[in-house]
Amino acid sequence: MADPSSYRPGPGSIPDSPGVYRFRDEHRRVIYVGKAKSLRQRLASYFQDLANLHPRTRTMVTTAASVEWTVVSTEVEALQLEYSWIKEYDPRFNVKYRDDKSYPYLAVTMNEEFPRVQVMRGQKRKGVRYFGPYGHAWAIRDTVDLLLRVFPVRTCSAGVFKNAARTGRPCLLGYIDKCSAPCVGRVTPEEHRELADEFCDFMAGRTGTYIRRLEQRMTDAAEEMEYERAARLRDDIEALRKAMEKSAVVLADATDADLVAVAEDELEAAVQIFHVRGGRVRGQRGWVTDKVEEITTGALVEHALQQLYGEEKGDAVPKEVLVPALPDPVEPVQEWLTERRGANVSLRIPQRGDKKALMETVARNAQQALILHKTKRASDLTTRSRALEEIAQALDLESAPLRIECYDISHFQGDDVVASMVVFEDGLQRKSEYRRFQIKGFEGQDDVRSMHEVITRRFRRYLAEKERTGEWADGEDGLTDEDGRPRRFAYPPQLVVVDGGQPQVAAAKRALDELGIDDIAVCGLAKRLEEVWLPDDDDPVVLPRTSEGLYLLQRVRDEAHRFAITYQRAKRAKRFRAGPLDDVPGLGDARKQALIKHFGSVKRLRSATIDQICEIPGIGRKTAETIVAALAGATPAGPAVNTATGEIMEEDEHDGTPGTTPDTPGEPVTAGAPDERRGQER
């Protein structure tokens, strides 16, 4: 590990002008390429106290052994040179989209004497018209098959073409009129090129004019009583319309645009691109990348645009590029795109209308791509095993933590403070073991104190179960009840993860120490920098960005956060819907709904006798007496007002339980006590 001060450039040696810089390691390999409006300011930001740097940046500058730069005239030149160097050196610390040019394109080789229509992958070639990309090669072949009857362009390989020319016999497509057979001279090179031009015009979106022309020719043929030619033209029009139906109209006015959306978390980002030509989605592609460096959404967009258009020119760069966030600064990128196209390019964020709606669709695709990527990664047994081994090694555990419990605290401005406990066994979610807690020991917001309370309550229950059953007595494990069901809180984890840094980890460790538990490891995952904190350690454990162990810890933490905030929101919503029956001790939601359904409103229930209430199934006399006493002491709700008319509604229509109707059952919650139906402490 190198000390950045050992290769820091001397004072005043870095120019204050635009440029591109390269960090190299001790073997002279380029590990990072960046551009800057001011090289002096940007490079100075790398040579500061390491504690102030982002962990990924810190890793990069300590891996590097030297830095060099190249001065350019403008920021646009810097953008171009940065792209060229990233392509040339493939630096390990730069964002790299895992695209590998594998998406298939529909290509027309206009650089040949007899242009050929074919599926192409890989690097793009000069003189070849490309359409797409497509998700699957078969989608290209289906489209081409429909269009060949109208545009019978050559599709055969060079070998087949030469063999047909030598023998004087065309291939099968020539006999069934899906090829104009230029190999045997049925059409001249000029006529065949004209067919290829028409094919390209149609694929580029200029469809309406061509179909109208065919319709006119069909009408003329019918008027001249050339019915066979008219039928042929009718079938051609139908084939073209079928080809057009494969891509629905999404934007009006025959818009040409690319829409770029990004879905990201702390470690990875997914990019999705929809290519819209002539108002129709002509292609879609997507990438996933590791976030090697600290990077904003705008910077991710900039890297995506470099990858998209770095090798493109002319019409391949659309008039309009819609993005979720603009690069900073945006002017050089927009100028670079304009230069690539040879005409003005609009780079902007859609604000309203069809384009904003389509951008939301692209964003959903990006989110689904990221989820699918993570799901595939998590479902692999080998990957899970490696993740658990990496965690054990990083935290110095004796064995892999087969059961991991993670805890998170959630509240709304200090109110409705709750906690969650999620369980992963063998790297997979165990949702039946999830638990939820209400913080009961104090009022207000104190995440550290809340964490101490939750850990104490959970493991006090564990010790109680262990003591009550006599763990492993008489050869039995003592972890199941008489019916063979697992006892709640009976299984201890090998690792406790808390959402937070040093304070939360210290609180969790202190709670375990107070209970005399010393065989359960504790760590915390701080969300901002993805650092792993251990008790009594002043410095965090920084797992590599490619670590499957870090990825698993992140999934565990995120699931705990999701579970906690879902419960907190539900609890807050239930508090807002509270009515007078909520103050009746021991009356759950099921019986409250039965009472409202039977009497119709709280007003009628308030006027009912004890004997009438006892008629409700499940309501005993003692409970009925409690209900009557509680409602007698409750203040009736004021009359409701119809905000549309201003009139006062009858009290029967407004029963004093806002948000609760006989047809809207709520979820029973007993504060501070377990919900036996769900087996979750709240």
TrEMBL record:
PROSITE patterns: GIY_YIG, UVR, UVRC
Domain UVR: 208-243
Domain UvrC family homology region profile: 259-512
Gene3D superfamilies referenced in this protein's UniProt entry, alphabetically: 5' to 3' exonuclease, C-terminal subdomain, GIY-YIG endonuclease, UVR domain, UvrC, RNAse H endonuclease domain
Localization: Cytoplasm
Region annotated Disordered, chain positions: 638-682
Domain GIY-YIG intervals: 16-95
Pfam families according to UniProt: GIY-YIG (PF01541), HHH_5 (PF14520), UVR (PF02151), UvrC_RNaseH (PF22920), UvrC_RNaseH_dom (PF08459)
Molecular function in Gene Ontology: DNA binding; excinuclease ABC activity
Record flagged with keyword Mitochondrion: no
Cellular component annotations (GO), alphabetically ordered: cytoplasm; excinuclease repair complex
Comp. bias intervals (Low complexity): 657-666
Major localization listed first in the record, in broad terms: cytoplasm
Highest taxon of source: Bacteria
PANTHER family: UVRABC SYSTEM PROTEIN C, UVRC/OXIDOREDUCTASE
Family: Belongs to the UvrC family.
Biological role: The UvrABC repair system catalyzes the recognition and processing of DNA lesions. UvrC both incises the 5' and 3' sides of the lesion. The N-terminal half is responsible for the 3' incision and the C-terminal half is responsible for the 5' incision.
Self-association state and partner proteins as the record states: Interacts with UvrB in an incision complex.
Name this polypeptide is given: UvrABC system protein C
Encoding gene, per UniProt annotation: uvrC
